[in-house]
Amino acid sequence: MKVRFRLGVTLLLMVLGATSCSQLSGKPGPNSEVPRPDQILDSKLLFARNCAGCHGAEGKEGPALDLSNPVYLALVDDNVLRATISQGRPGTAMSAFARQAGGMLTDEQINSIVSGIRERWGRHGALSGTNAPPYASVLRGDPERGRTAYATFCSNCHGVDDKGGPRAGSVTNGTYLRLISDQGLRTLIIVGRPDFQAPDWRGNVPGRPMTDQEISDVVAWLASQRPHNPFALYPANSSVPGGVR
């Protein structure tokens, strides 16, 4: 009888102990495990953590390209998006995110970001009925012709010097040109920045879209304004903090 009693008490204590342990403050609940960073595949979460800082929380109104622009997404294919995210843009602020290039993202995560961008902001037929210039230049640009084309299509907003114009900042400023590639200039001329009311290649002069040659020429002229020596941006008597004295 005593043995049965002791056994019963022991079992009761074990049940009570298990119950109390399950109610301990701070004990993780069901499905509360934190996934490893390389196991996160949610496209919105990946975009927020890796892209939104430059491109904006909704793909726009950031210092970098408007990724929510359906014209841009119709112009580029997934391979371009994937390569840009993976390898970055050397010489610009766009760094590489792929692990094999020194970043933190797996190929699967990069594919998720690309799919998410396309699903959230792509619009079927965004370039239908247009004679859109190709994403990459196929024509050699001429800087002298580009000077004239810039005056016709760009100076009304951006001005003619590094002080900018009445509607937009300067795109001839040396610091700006050091931070953007020739392809970046071409892309912006073609797709514009709708989040900042900057038109695409069709809207600079009403009824007069830019031709592929004119786009290439403007890029060539802007590239010719890019200082090759970064210290030239800050002359010896410059008052810019950190400038060469």
Give descriptors for this structure.
245 residues, mainly alpha, Cytochrome Bc1 Complex, Chain D, domain 2, 11 helices, disordered C terminus
Structural class: mainly alpha
**CATH hierarchy class name of the domain at 143-233:** Mainly Alpha
Instruction: Tell me the strand percentage band.
Output: under 5%
- State the share of residues found in helices, binned by percent: 40-55%
Q: In the CATH scheme, what's the topology name of the domain at 143-233?
A: Cytochrome Bc1 Complex, Chain D, domain 2
Provide a descriptive summary of the structure in words.
There is one protein chain. The chain is an all-alpha fold and 245 residues long. It contains eleven helices and no strands. Among the domains are: 42-121, Cytochrome c-like domain (Cytochrome Bc1 Complex, Chain D, domain 2), CATH 1.10.760.10; 143-233, Cytochrome c-like domain (Cytochrome Bc1 Complex, Chain D, domain 2), CATH 1.10.760. Helix 2 (43-50) packs across helix 6 and helix 7 packs across helix 11 (212-224). It is elongated and about 100 Å long. The chain starts with a helix and ends in a 21-residue tail after the last helix. The relative contact order is 0.11. The model is unreliable at 240-245 (pLDDT under 50).
Summarize the structure.
Helices cover 44% and strands 0% of the residues.
